[in-house]
Amino acid sequence: MHCGDLSDELEMLRRKENGFIWIGLKDPTDAEFALVNDELQLHPLAVEDAVKGNQRPKIETYDGSLFLVMKTLRYIEATSDIETGEVMVFVGDRFVVTVRRGEANPLTTVRHMLEQAPEHLEHGPIAVLYSVMDSVVDNYIAIDKEVQEDLDEIERQVFSGSRDVRAEGIYALKREVLEFRRATVPLEEPLRRLAEDPTVPGMKDEARPFFRDISDHLLRVSDHAESYDRLLTDVLNAHLAQISVQQNDDMRRISAWVAIAAVPTMIAGIYGMNFDNIPELHWRYGYFIVLGLMAATCTALYRAFRKSGWL
Questions:
Q1: Share of the chain above pLDDT 90, in %
Q2: Which domain holds residue 251?
Q3: What is the Cα–Cα distance from 97 to 213, expressed in whole angstroms?
C-alpha cells in the first residue's frame, strides 16, 4: 500500500487505538533513512548496522524494540551461483521498518499476502516479522533444492569417470554452499529466541508456534547445507584421487611404449655404426634377421606389458 507523508501517517496512527505502519526501504540512501529515523527515533546502534549493511544474521533488543538481520539469497540459473543480499527489520510497538539490500527476496508479495490475512495482522508488528522470516526461509528451501541438483550432477559425473568435470567446478559449488551456510546457520539462534525467549519485546505467546515452524524448516535446511559441504569435500577428494590414478596409468603406458621403442632403436643404432667386422653385415639374410629380431622382441615386450596391466 502506498504511504503518504510519513509524519501525517504517524500522526493518524497515534490517534487510533490499534494498528501499525510498515515502512519498506530498498537500498535506501543516507538521506532517506535519516528521514525515517527522525520520525521513529530508532536506536543508534541498530541504525549504524542498517546504514553500513553487510551484517551477520542476528537479533538485538533495544528499549522495547527488536532489530533483526537476515541474509537473503538468490539462485542464478545461468551460472549456478548464489547471490547474497540482506534484509534488516526494525520492530517497534506501532511500526515495522524493513531495509532490503540486493535483489534477492522481494517483499512485495509478502505484503500483499499479509494484507489478505487479517487473522495474522491481529498479532501486530510481530506478524510482519514472521511473514518476512517465513519468506526468507522458504527461499532457502528453494535454493536448497537447486544446490542438491547441482551436487547430484557433479557426483554423477565424477563417479561415472567423465572427463568433463573439473576440480574448479567442484570447488566453486563448495564456495556457494559455504555462502549458503553463512546465511542459514547464524539465523538459528535468533529464531530460537523468538520461539522460546519470554523476554523478547512485543512477542505474544500465540505467535510463538509460527516461529517454531520456521525454525524447524531452517534447521532442516542447515542440516542439508552441512551435509552438502561434507559430501563436496569427499567428491573433491575422490576426483583428485581419480586424476592421480589416471596420471599413474598414463605414465605406465608411456613408460611401456618407451621401453618397446628402445629395443629397435638400440639395435638400429648398433647396426648404424657400419663396422666391417659385424658378422651379419655382409650376410645375405642378416638384414631380415635383424628386422625379425626387432619385431619378436617388441612383440614379447608388448605381451608382457599387457599381461601386467601396463597397456
A1: 19
A2: 245-308
A3: 23
